[in-house]
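Good morning,

Attaching, inline, the backbone tokens for the sequence recovery test we're adding to the shared suite. The designed sequence is right after.
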């Protein structure tokens, strides 16, 4: 089981974490992707996803939002998030919390994270910590899981960007616990992702992504994944 924040949601939340406007702002976003990838793992069994959300940002640095998408293992994913961010000069920072909610057909899939990040110019590093999860303790996405990441983003041309991300998931359960629960897997894994973005103005933003992970996770192999996404904010 897994969830996302993520190919298209990342764009929505990143907007909320950027330097804020002079007055509180309410925006909406819609998106589509050929494969909903989150932290290196597909959430749609390599299928397409459609998503949408609403974000609110205050000049003080506080922000909040909600976002939803279809997933493979449940009828829907619904995220609720909030945080506080700021910066000075080339330095930025953010503290956040997010709750991942799924319909009852998924079983005990819901979980809650807190996290933070620090950025300098084009570089950002951060972590997310799972403080509560409804999964049994011998499965991932329960209390104690940590996701670390580092990313870099560069402007290639006025409307083109290049992004690089390395992330590592350190689950608070072991491979032996997973196997005993009937879910053999190399629990901890590292993933790598490259994103080439193109802004099309009023037509939204397009992204071409390539990703790979170094270990099998929850039955998913370490094959290279390629997907395309589109998103637009209002």
């Amino acid at each position: 089981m897994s969830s996302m924040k993520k190919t298209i949601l990342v764009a929505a939340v990143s907007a909320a974490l950027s330097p804020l406007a002079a007055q509180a702002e309410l925006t909406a976003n819609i998106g589509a992707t050929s494969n909903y990838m989150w932290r290196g793992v597909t959430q749609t069994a390599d299928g397409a996803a459609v998503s949408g959300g609403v974000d609110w940002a205050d000049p003080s640095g506080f922000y909040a939002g909600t976002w939803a998408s279809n997933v493979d293992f449940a009828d829907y994913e619904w995220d609720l998030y909030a945080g506080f961010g700021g910066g000075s000069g080339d330095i930025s920072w953010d503290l956040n919390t997010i709750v991942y909610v799924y319909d009852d057909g998924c079983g005990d899939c819901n979980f809650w994270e807190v996290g933070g990040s620090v950025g300098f110019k084009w570089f950002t590093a951060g972590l997310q910590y799972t403080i509560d999860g409804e999964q049994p303790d011998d499965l991932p996405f329960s209390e104690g899981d940590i996701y670390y990441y580092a990313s870099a983003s560069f402007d290639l041309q006025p409307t083109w960007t290049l992004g690089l991300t390395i992330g590592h998931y350190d689950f608070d359960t072991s491979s032996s616990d997973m196997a005993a629960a009937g879910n053999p897997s190399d629990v901890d894994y590292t993933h790598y992702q490259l994103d080439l973005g193109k802004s099309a103005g009023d037509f939204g933003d397009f992204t071409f992504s390539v990703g790979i992970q170094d270990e099998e996770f929850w039955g998913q192999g370490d094959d290279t994944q390629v997907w395309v996404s589109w998103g637009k904010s209002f």
